[in-house]
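Q: I'm teaching a short session on how sequence maps to structure, and I want students to see two examples side by side rather than one. Could you give me a first protein with its sequence written out and its structure tokens following it? Keep the formatting plain so it prints cleanly on a handout.
A: Of course. Example one:
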Amino acid sequence: MREDTRTIIFAAGTCLVVSLLLSVTAQQLKPLQEANGVFDVKRNIVKAFGIDIAGMSREDIEATYAAHVDEDKAGELPIFTWTEDDADKASKYAFPVSGKGLWSVLYGYLALDGDLETIAGISFYKHGETPGLGAEIEKPWFQNQFKGKKLYEDGKPTDFQVVKPGTELTDTSVDGISGATLTGNGVEELLQKDAAAYAEYFKSVKEGE
């Protein structure tokens, strides 16, 4: 009995020490994790604005964001603007997009060109979709096909679609991912939803030009 008691006390003490060490480590890493999260948002906003970030260092991306991107509000909705060097007005606008995929919520940013109708770029950066299938939304081949497509027309959201691969494409559709129909449906639905949410804001910007 005495040996059993010693074993239990030792095990309990070991668990307590390990728990304390893990807690301290988590607290020490928290600021770094938060900073990385903020940077990841900036990186994806810059990418959505059509900037090729491949090969750019963290410092370069931070500097690009600081020099060209401003954060604002479209009512209660966040909006990001891109202003070129020496320009006095924004040339592109970006906003967050999110919606349900197959296994998770998909998060990204979408940017519009100065006409406030044409997609300048899109970046999906956070999700829990299946590797090799739905997770392809992160890949350049999927994201690049959105550039030049129409999200709005005459101030109204288009019926933007993510279609079955091989379907004839229009200026308001892109190829989906083979074997990931539900993820593609999620992308289609979130784009239509968030485009509708920002429609009045972009209409007011256009009327104010």
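Q: Perfect. Now a second example for contrast.
A: Example two:
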Amino acid sequence: MAFSKENRSGTISGIVFVAIFATAATMIADIAFIKNLGLSPLVIGIVMGIFYANTLHNHIPSAWGTGITFSGKKILRFAIVFYGFRITFQEIMNVGMSGFMVSLIMLTTTLIFGSWVGYKIFKMEKDTSILTASGAAVCGAAAVLATEPVLKAEGHKTAVAVSMVVLFGTISMFLYPVLYASIIEPATGFLHMTPQEFGIYVGGTIHEVAQVVAVPASIPGAPEDMAHSAVIVKMTRVIMIAPMLIILGLYLAYSAKKKGDTASDGVKLVIPWFAVYFIGVAGFNSLQLVPLSIVGGINEIDTFLLTMAMTALGMGTIFAKFKGLGLAPLYAAGTMFIWLVVGGFLVTKGVVALFS
């Protein structure tokens, strides 16, 4: 046990150690240049953690490992629950059926298609395929972290998935403004999108929340409804992580039982209760009983806790474990990225036309 008498001191020291790294990541992410790139403290945290893991990890007491593990597991689940304070059901309703359907379709298709492509086409390990697909389908690094406990995946697999969604999410942050300026905005035919439509497209297909915010902000003269639609559709995708994880748990239990192994008889359905609590917190937040100033403070603390979890994940990532993976994760993530950009455009156009 992490806080048993013999482990308590090492656990606390490990948590404090991770918190120091997370504080540094938060400060770096607040630098204007880094902020303009749309890199969140979560991303900075895992980079710092990985650097530590492959350079200095032998220079701290091994007893601190329980605290690092605690940060990457228990603190993570707590932080995911309180992520619900970023969402209200009213915001989801305001974006309309078009935004909801684009979110639902893109999440579902990206998760299923991405998992299949990674596992069947590029012969990746199943956990890595699902983790990478979940990051692309929902909300980048945070979604990968939320999916990891359901799969009970090893830390280095999670790190591979995070690195892929960060890479292609960053590319999309620079690509989408160029697409809008050179193709979508001036066109008068099928490729044309109104600012609100483009916002739905951005929110329904880009990986990280910070990247979604950055795209409209980087388009000169972008109207408010573009940014508003983008953020709300994105947060709709975020809240869908809870039912996604529950369905994934059902699928894993069913798959294990279907194999017919003797061990499968003892397999139980794993319900990610932190995802259920996440919905409950979002529902409570929708009642607007807590002052906005307090909600803002909660969200800042929550971002720091997520940064701690991401940093701890990086600290458990040794590059030697990646041997044998080759370019498969890059190919799989690249295929998902093409689907998000091209397929997402077609889905957005079709759904908006259907519900307009």
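Q: What should students look for in example two?
A: Point them to this: The radius of gyration is 20 Å. Also worth mentioning: The mean pLDDT is 83.
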